[in-house]
Every structure is written in structure tokens, then in C-alpha cells.
Amino acid sequence: MLNSELTLSDVESAVRTMAHLAVKNERYFCDLDGELGDADFGKSLAAGFNAILADFDNIDRADIGTFLIKVGMIFSAKVGGTSGPVWGTAFLRAGIASKGKTSLTLADLASMGNSAIQGIMARGGASQGDKTVLDAIIPAVAKIEEFSKDDAADPRDAFQAASVAAMAAVEGTRHWPARRGRQSYAAERSIGTLDPGIVAIAMMAKAIVAQMESTMGEEQVTV
Fold it and tell me: What is the rounded CA–CA span in Å between residue 46 and residue 51?
């Protein structure tokens, strides 16, 4: 990984990290969803990411955007319900915003994140404050955008700040009523519960930071 840019390899590692975390925590995410929902969020997420992992080596890597578009297409094709369209759209929109790019600056990442946010809003009809994945993604992308104003900023620092912002949303939204998704049917009873999508985003962001730090350590090894 370069000091100021991310490569296709970094993007691949991030997607793989997200996939492994989703698969590993399938039951946990289902349990969270089961408090007020259909208890299938973890299963849907794992199905989508398992499909991506199964075809990972064959995904078109012409550039970063093409890779992410293909990832989104696989997810959308494999998963129905709400998760398929929402998560698939996020990858697709991020891919469209990075089409033709072989490396990414933090400004590129912020643009991709904002494009994904707009896609999720359009697809799911949710907004910030509705207690959905957006309440973790929006503050995380805002942090990356903040760091993007410094040309010398290290992507690791930006991702660390984004991870902290996403993690803060887990407890920060606990006492909000859900206004979108299956949990919204429970109205006030959703107060005090965790949104599984927010938890998933926060855990993925934290795992990506850990993976980046691990890679950094490997790069520093000399023989």
C-alpha cells in the first residue's frame, strides 16, 4: 500500500475481509435481527459474500471500478429481500464512481462512499437518522472526506477515524426508534435494540483497519 493511495490489491483485501467477517458472524447477525426482525440478515449477508468468495479469483480486475461493479452484481444476483439490493447497490455505485481507476486517493474514496450512500438512499428509501446502515456509513465516509483535504494524510489514519465513527453508531443509535426495515414495524419497541446492519458495518470497518495494520507490519519486515 502506498503512503497516500490505495491499490486494487488493497480493495481486494478489504472486500475479502468484509466477506470473511460476514460469514464468520452469520449466526450473531441473525440473532441481532431476530430480536425484532426475521432473523435472516446474517444468512442473507453470508450468502452474498460466500458467493463473492466462491468466484473471487474469476472476478474481472480490469480496474478497481470494474472489480467492485462485478462484486455488486454477484451480491445482487445471490441475495433477495432488502439486503441484496442495498448492499449490491452500494458496491455497484462505488464501482461506477471508481471506473477506470487503478489506484485511489482519499478524495476518490470519499466520492465512492458518497455515491454508495446516495444509491442506498434511493434503493431503500432510508435517510440518516432512520437507524439503518446509513447511520454507520455516513459518519464513516464523512471522516474519510475530512482526511482527504490533507494531501499527506495516511489512508490508515483515515480508516481508523472512519472505523471509530462507525463503531460509535452502534451504541449511539441503540435508543433510537427504527424508521425503516423490518424493525420499524415494532415502532417504539425497537428502542433499546441494536440494528444488525449498523453492527455489521462497524465490525467490518474495524476488521479492515486491523487488516491494514497487519499489512503495514508485513511491509516493514526486512531480511
Answer: 8
| Rg of the chain (C-alpha set) | 17
Within a domain: 221: no
**Residue 112: which of 101, 97, 133, 122 has the closest Cα?**
97
> For the chain, how far is it from start to end, CA to CA, in angstroms?
19
What is the three-state SS of 47-75?
HHHHHHHHCHHHCCCCCHHHHHHHHHHHH
Nearest in space to 82 (alpha carbons), one of 22, 24, 132, 28: 132
Quote the domain boundaries for residue 13.
Answer: 6-215
| CATH number, domain containing residue 18 | 1.25.40.340
Residue 1 covered by a domain: no
pTM of whole model > 0.90? yes
Q: Is residue 190 part of a domain?
A: yes
User: What is the number of structural domains in the chain?
Assistant: 1
**Phi, psi torsion values for 177, nearest 5 degrees:** -80, 140
Low-confidence ranges of the chain (pLDDT < 50): 1-2, 217, 219-223
The verdict on residue 12 lying in a domain is: yes
Q: What is the pLDDT of residues 158-215, one digit of tens each?
A: 999 999 999 999 999 999 998 877 676 666 778 999 999 999 999 999 999 999 988 7
